Amino acid sequence: MSLGQGLTNFLTSDLYGLTAEEYSLGRSNIEIVEAMITAGIKVIQYREKEKKALYMYQECLKIRELTQAAGVTLIVNDHIDLALAVQADGVHIGQEDLPPQIVRQLIGTSMILGLSTHSPAQAEAAVQCGVVDYIGVGPIFATQTKKDVCEPVGLDYLDYVVKNIQLPFVAIGGIKMNNIAEVHRRGAKISALVTEIVSAQNIPEQVAAIRQSIYRSSC
Amino acid sequence: MSLGQGLTNFLTSDLYGLTAEEYSLGRSNIEIVEAMITAGIKVIQYREKEKKALYMYQECLKIRELTQAAGVTLIVNDHIDLALAVQADGVHIGQEDLPPQIVRQLIGTSMILGLSTHSPAQAEAAVQCGVVDYIGVGPIFATQTKKDVCEPVGLDYLDYVVKNIQLPFVAIGGIKMNNIAEVHRRGAKISALVTEIVSAQNIPEQVAAIRQSIYRSSC
Lengths: 219, 219
What we know:
2 copies of one chain form a homodimer. Chain A has an 8-stranded parallel β-barrel with strand order 1-2-3-4-5-6-7-8, surrounded by 6 helices. Chain A has helices spanning 3-12, 29-38, 53-70, 80-85, 100-107, 120-129, 154-164, 180-185, 195-198, 203-217, and strands spanning 15-18, 43-46, 73-77, 90-93, 112-117, 134-137, 169-172, 191-193. The first copy, chain A, has one domain: TIM Barrel, CATH 3.20.20.70. The model of chain A has no long low-confidence stretch (mean pLDDT 95). Chain A is globular and about 40 Å long. Chain A has 10 helices and 8 strands. By secondary structure, chain A is α/β, with parallel strands linked by helices. Chain A is 45% helix and 16% strand. The A-B interface holds A 52-55, 57, 78-82, 84-85, 95-99, 102-103, 105-106 and B 52-55, 57, 78-82, 84-85, 93, 95-99, 102-103, 105-106.
């Protein structure tokens, strides 16, 4: 997939899926990705903090095959070397990862670079550095999924980004069926949901219901 | 430093230093590397498991400057992206990291690739894969430094490597002042010591004493 195709998925999607094996009811990351693809999710991030690199590689290689065949954008969290090894469409980094300019040097110009931001200053810096393709905006609400996450920044930061930042962004953090309408009503085009998707028994049904919730927001 | 220069340091040295901040008596990895350089150690591995990538990068960048200026070979443990980002001389991986062939693709041909091995089968595989520049052989003795290490393989595995494996190797694991003579008498040319160096109050004096111990082995 070219950079353009990978980004187009991002720019035209409503949902951004992430793996989170410990919340996946005993299913593997691979099974979850298969279900997300079936559900029509077009952007999937492989996020895995615990496993040894070899097992992440083996798993992510399979996920790369599945996403490639389905025309789904695959973003790898944190591990630049893993992203390069499996030829992912992009990488997603946080504020305490390698600096974006350095990551851009490592990945070249044909991979998407996403950066988590938690404040107006971080969003402005992401714009200024000139190498970031999209930002994460959050955590909008309280979340238990990430262990090293900061306090929720609330809807105010989302409003700031919608009004002031030109970069594409994904809203993330504590977004659920019952609050996603508000997030999209305020201007988010795409939202990342973790447990609300991976913890569902039937992921395609759950995703359809989440999409209904977004749709209701625009009525 | 070219691949050749970096490897020459490896092939002509007796000691291989590693960082281990939690055993460094409150000194930073940077201070420890400075002391190792003063002590005349020519191969240093940056090993850091706990810190966020950004802080590893900032620290390792400084260590890269120090080692470069001193003509010391810098090897980065595990983190291929970090090694590339700081332009280290090489990377060192374990059996549960990205496969050596994949790592070689990521680092190109101008960086050293080291691989930990713990058995004759792993040493043979390292030779067969054709992309590894040196192997780690150990743990020779019991060690508490690494949390995810296997049981000591003892001197038998060292003897096997000396007799059967053509690749350069570094002996590692529980090597101390009082047993390094035996390791070198059996054919090791270079040994990696962690706590025995980083936990010394005066690292140059300690390294001189360790070298005396090796020297006594050849009498």
